[in-house]
Specification:
The protein is built from 5 helices and no strands. α1 runs antiparallel to α2, α2 runs antiparallel to α3 and α3 runs antiparallel to α4.
Length: 113
Amino acid sequence: MQRLFVMFPDRAPGIGLLWLRVYLAAALCWPLPQAGWHPWVAAAGGVLLLLGGLTPVAVLLAIAALWSDGRGLALVLLPGCLLLLGPGAYSLDACLFGRRVLVAERGGPPPKE
């Protein structure tokens, strides 16, 4: 999953991505569509976007729900921006798949080859 995103920005860009995820989750779930399979897709996509978990799957669910609901083209393309930018540092994806810091002990034995 880490290969899908170049980085997980924090501070102001990370907060901006968090607000984008919150806005998209609100757009999906307010008002909740009433017809067919579509409300479940909207609710699942909204929850995943809000938590920032499985962002590529959440974006696909969001696009499908917004497209079938007949929302404006700008709102339908907005999840695609999130797909290109990534979930940000304040997300479940960053906790699970983010960058790791490796700490090596000094004076320890050399690695075996």
